[in-house]
Each structure stands twice: as structure tokens, then as C-alpha cells.
Write a structure and sequence with these properties.
Helices cover 10% and strands 41% of the residues. The protein is mainly beta. The chain starts with a strand and ends in a 16-residue tail after the last helix. Keywords: Membrane, Signal, Transmembrane, Transmembrane helix. The chain crosses the membrane at residues 546-564.
């Protein structure tokens, strides 16, 4: 382990439940393993699942892609269209909502291919859950009730990122969609599918959803929530200032019938919301935000400072964020900063403490190897974990660090090889760090990625795949969180049977099953007295599968992590 003395630089700125009939699926641990693998029950509800956070009582925040049995609203489909006539195998049955599997999957693909259209049903592409040992509770976010069915529409894509010991979850959610009937000037009936804002942060406790409104909320603004502590302080990012000179004019034009044309005002605003979200960086200043919750909702909202203080005439649009907060109210994230005393902007790890913003700076020549840095978590011992993009052997990997905020010491622990990229995701109060790392160098340039655990006190860095039983069907690609009991949540790949849109096992024309690699949320439970298993005896008869799917896995995985990755690749060369 390398240690460098550093100084902290002061800147002038500163649930409705879906009960499962089965409990956790457990894989018995072989003698000598250190962790038992437990597959979360939410994996049975959709195609792929990704955990994001775990609290001290074992409740786990999980995101689920491609949920089984999506509801199809046939009232919004034109069954006289050439596309549906050509694509459906049984048009009349489909028209009445009685789908065979082929038609069900065709209609789902047809509808989701028209996401953002104001004339198509909107189906959530990601659903969020809190998983316990035998149940999975759906988090509805801002989804709303369909008056025709008295059920949630499943229209609001949600992403849950944090959970505290009181059961509060935080994340972001689309606004729920609704149908608006409109009669045109030509006396034509048109049904629009609309919502009132694009998405924003939320906190949820049981069925109570709390809207985390950004400081600047023109056209709904923009906000996301990443973490919540035991004081019910939520951290994230939000729009703080409108910098666009044309957005308000466009909103006013939507209110003017002569300017918007023969469409409802809500439709005009929805189109404007979509285009605004696609270019947030030119519309709003964005800052790290703390929302203080009380029993009635949001008690107060604080926009956090940056590491730089722009001049009054500075027109640059800056974006900073807060992604984690400990129980003493100290938050961490990323802020714009100037690179090596130049006027070139970069990203720097930031610590928010008492309305001040601090960063870390090395007082050795090594600081000139660091291009950017990012803080991703902080524990109650004031240890900050993050990663820095550094120059190493002609490449620019991300090297993870542990920074002691109280003493001002930064450590860059050794990982598996010098040019490996390693990104932490969480640290608990026992100073155990988890995350993901490049496991080995290859001649092809494609590097396998595995979840890791790092014992800071004893300076031990381990692949989690070495700590589970040797013949486990799971390959751990990323560790996403760890609680005070040492339980780790992780994303793994596993070969399992393929299922259709209803969750039933797919059969081919010969009634045979097929399997493929799937992504599942798992929990790793420490085994008392366990030790690292000797896997040499298994090598000739067993090889873990799924390494080839890592790169497909991480396309979705990076967007679900608690931290905010850099705008460039996490694994740069």
C-alpha cells in the first residue's frame, strides 16, 4: 500500500408489495468458502436485476429490467394499421386483449419501440423494488392509477439508488403518464399520452412518495437522489439556475393557442420537456443538493457549493453532484475544478462539510499523474472512497483510493495489476470496501471484470469470486453495496433457462428448453469461520461461465451504480 500525506484544501464555495411464494434461492456453501451466495427473489420477476444498496436490517434496493407480464392497453392501439395486421398471428383475439405469447411479445416490442411518442402507451423500462428474505415490494415512484382498472399503470420508469435503516428508499422516477382526450378543429378525436415533468428525485417510505423538487423547477426542472442517511438527509443533484434564454419563451408559446397550433397545451409542454431533458447541460446550472426530510415531507433544500467560485460574468454551465452522505451529515461527490492550476476544467472528488466544499490534493509529484478524481462513498469513520483517473504505464486507468478526511492521508491500495481499472462503490463502518475491478491482463485487450472486497485495516484486496464456493454457477461482476453486518450485495452473471414475456420457460418447436447468460442480483452472506476454498481441484471439471457477457452487462450496469461515473469511459486506455 502506498501512503501519501495530503492536505484538505478549503474552497470559498462550498410500497405496494408483490409477495413471492418462494424465499431467497440459496446456493449451499462448500466447506472453506467465506461467503454464501443468495439469489434475490426479485430475479423471478423479470429478465435482469441489479442491486444498488443494502441497509443494516438486510433490506435491499434492486432495479429490475424487462418485468414480466406488462399490461398492454389495447385502447391505444390501432388494429387497422398495416403494421399490426402484418405482425399479429391472431388479430381478433389481440383486439380483445387475449394474446398468445407471440402476439404479446410483438405488441410489447411495438409499443416500447415508440417510447416518448405521445400517441403510444408508455411502459416502464425499469422497475424498482425493496427485497427482503421472502418478499419483493414494488416502488411505484410517481406512477399513477388508471381510472379504468384502479391499478397502477406501470408507466413511470424508476431507478432506486439508496435505502436507510428506517426503510426510506431514494432514487429517480419519471412522472406518471395519463391519457388526455382532445378534439381537433376538424372534429377528430385524438388521445394523447402525457406527463407533467420528465423525471425527478423521489424518496419513498411504504406507500408514501415524497417529491424531491429541485431548487429551480422551470418545466419541472431536473433532480436525482443517490443516498439517504439515518438523519433522513437525502443527497443528489438538482437544477439550481435557469441559464437558457429561450426556454421561458417556449413555455409562453405553448400557452398561446395561436402559436402552439391545434394541439393541447400539455402536449406542447411534453414535447418541450423531452427536448429540454436531451440538452440539460445547456439549460440549467446543476449542483449537488441535500434535501432534509421530516414527517411531512421535505423540510428544507440546500444547494451545495462547488470547488470553484465562478465570476459574476461567467456564463459557463457547471455541474456538480453529491452521491453519498454519512450519519454526521458529511457528503461526498464530484465538482468541477481547475486542472493543475490551469484554466482547464476537470472533475475532482469533493467533500461537503458545514456548507463548505473541500477536495484532496497530494503534496508529492504523484499529483501530476492525476487527471480527474471522483468520490463515491463515505462511512461514519470519515473514510472516503473514490477513484482517480491516472497516468500508468502509458494508459489512463481509474485507480481507487481511500482517503481519511480527519487525518488527511490518502491510500491507493494495490489491486491485481498496475494498469487495472478499479472502481469502489461502497464502504461500511468496519472499513470494508466493495466495488469492481479488472481482474487480469489479456493479449486481446479485453479484460475480465470482477467484484472485489478490500479490507482497509489489514490491507487485503480480494476478488469475490475467490471467496465463494469453487463450483458456484455465479460469476460476480460487481459488488454494489455492503452493510454493517458484512453482507454484500452484488451483480452476477449466471446461466439459466430462458423465459418468455409471461415468465414461463421458453420452449422451441421441439419443446426443448434453452439457456443463456442472465444478470441477477445476489447477496453474499459471511460464513462464520469460513476460509478461502482451494479451487485447484475443480479446475479440470468446472469453469465458471459468463465472462464473455461482462461487457454487455456493464452497458446497463454503469447507469445503475450509486456513484456518478466520469463522462469518459471508466476503463480508458
Amino acid at each position: 500500500m502506498k501512503q501519501t500525506r495530503i492536505a484538505a484544501l478549503l474552497s470559498r464555495s462550498f410500497l405496494s408489495s408483490a409477495f413471492l411464494s418462494s424465499a431467497f434461492l440459496s446456493v449451499p456453501a462448500a466447506f472453506g468458502a467465506q461467503y454464501q451466495v443468495v439469489e434475490l427473489p426479485v430475479a423471478d420477476l423479470g429478465v435482469d436485476s441489479y442491486p444498488t444498496a443494502i441497509n443494516s436490517i438486510g433490506e435491499i434496493a434492486v432495479n429490475l429490467a424487462s418485468q414480466f407480464n406488462p399490461v398492454i392497453d389495447v385502447s391505444l392501439l390501432n388494429f387497422d394499421s398495416a403494421t399490426l395486421i402484418a405482425g399479429l398471428t391472431n388479430l381478433e383475439n389481440a383486439r380483445s386483449g387475449d394474446f398468445n405469447t407471440a402476439d404479446y411479445e410483438f405488441l410489447y416490442a411495438y409499443i416500447t419501440a415508440n417510447a416518448e411518442s405521445q400517441f403510444f402507451q408508455q411502459i416502464a423500462s425499469l422497475n424498482s423494488y425493496v427485497a427482503s428474505e421472502d418478499t419483493s415490494t414494488l416502488l411505484h415512484g410517481f406512477d399513477n392509477i388508471d381510472n379504468d382498472t384502479d391499478e397502477y399503470r406501470n408507466s413511470a420508469t424508476t431507478t432506486v439508488r439508496g435505502i436507510n435503516d428506517f426503510g426510506y428508499t431514494v432514487g429517480k422516477s419519471y412522472d406518471g403518464f395519463y391519457k388526455l382526450e382532445y378534439v381537433t378543429e376538424d372534429i377528430e378525436d385524438v388521445t394523447y399520452v402525457l406527463n407533467d415533468f420528465y423525471y425527478r428525485g423521489f424518496a419513498q417510505i411504504e406507500d408514501n412518495v415524497i417529491e424531491l423538487t429541485p431548487p429551480e423547477s422551470t418545466l419541472g426542472g431536473y433532480s436525482e437522489a443517490y443516498d439517504i442517511n439515518e438523519l433522513n438527509q437525502v443527497v443528489g443533484i438538482g437544477s439550481t439556475e435557469l441559464v437558457s434564454t429561450t426556454l421561458q419563451d417556449s413555455i409562453d408559446a405553448c400557452a398561446d393557442e395561436s402559436e402552439r397550433g391545434d394541439i393541447p397545451e400539455a402536449s406542447c409542454l411534453r414535447s418541450l420537456s423531452i427536448s429540454t431533458n436531451a440538452s440539460l447541460g445547456s439549460v440549467f446550472q446543476q449542483r449537488g443538493v441535500i434535501w432534509q426530510l421530516d414527517d411531512n415531507g421535505v423540510e428544507d433544500t440546500y444547494a451545495l457549493p462547488m470547488l470553484i467560485e465562478p465570476d459574476e460574468d461567467d456564463t459557463t454551465v457547471y455541474s456538480s453532484t453529491a452521491v453519498a452522505i454519512n450519519d454526521f451529515g458529511i457528503a461526498v461527490g464530484t465538482s468541477p475544478a481547475f486542472y493543475q492550476n490551469t484554466d482547464t476544467l476537470t472533475s475532482a472528488a469533493v467533500i461537503y462539510d458545514n456548507d463548505k466544499a473541500y477536495t484532496i490534493s497530494e503534496d508529492s509529484d504523484e499529483e501530476y499523474d492525476v487527471f480527474a478524481s471522483y468520490a463515491v462513498d463515505i462511512n461514519n469513520n470519515d473514510l472516503v472512497v473514490g477513484y482517480a483517473t491516472k497516468s500508468v504505464l502509458g494508459s489512463t486507468p481509474n485507480k481507487f483510493f481511500v482517503y481519511d478526511y480527519d487525518s488527511g492521508i490518502i491510500d491507493y491500495p494495490d489491486d491485481f495489476f498496475d494498469s487495472a481499472s478499479t472502481v469502489p462503490t461502497a464502504i461500511n463502518d468496519d472499513n470494508l470496501v466493495v466495488g469492481f475491478t479488472e481482474f487480469e491482463e489479456t493479449s486481446s485487450g479485453i479484460r475480465r471484470v470482477e467484484g472485489f472486497v478490500y479490507d482497509y485495516r489489514n490491507d487485503i484486496f480480494s476478488s469475490l469470486n475467490d471467496l465463494i464456493e469453487c463450483n458456484s454457477p455465479y460469476t460476480i461482476a460487481q459488488a454494489n453495496g455492503i452493510n454493517e453486518n458484512g453482507e454484500i450485495i452484488a451483480t452476477a452473471t449466471v446461466s439459466s433457462v430462458n423465459k418468455d414475456i409471461t415468465g414461463e420457460i421458453e420452449l422451441d418447436e421441439y419443446d426443448a428448453q434453452s439457456s443463456s447468460t442472465h444478470v441477477v442480483a445476489i447477496k453474499l452472506v459471511p460464513i462464520p469461520g469460513g476460509s478461502i476454498d482451494n479451487c485447484d481441484v475443480y479446475e479440470e471439471e468446472y469453469e465458471r461461465q459468463g465472462a464473455g457477457a461482462f461487457w454487455l452487462l456493464f452497458v446497463g450496469l454503469f447507469g445503475l451504480a450509486r456513484f456518478v461515473p466520469s463522462r469518459t469511459s471508466l476503463f480508458k486506455r
